[in-house]
Amino acid sequence: MRRDTKGDQGYRPYITRSFARWARLYDPFISLFRVKGVRRKTLEMNGVQSGDRVLDVCTGTGDVALEFARRCDDVTGIDLSDGMLAVAQRSFPRRAD
Prior knowledge:
Elements: H1 8-31, H2 36-46, E1 53-57, H3 63-71, E2 74-78, H4 82-96
Parallel strand pairs: 1-2
């Protein structure tokens, strides 16, 4: 399937709208696919440790950023979707304990 856009100018609004619609339901939906173990294994394989700095690009709802934060001292998550970041900001304190 070919999507006709004008480069990043057309693609970015499409992506941000799509993820804004899914933001509240994203974590419950993804949990159906049991990806938590895959995420943890990915984090273990990269060797992050105390003192490291991590930039989580496309952080979404922040699940991977939270796992990084448990292993190192400085984690920043960025995402195009304000909706996904809002979910991450609301749920981060709850998930961090």
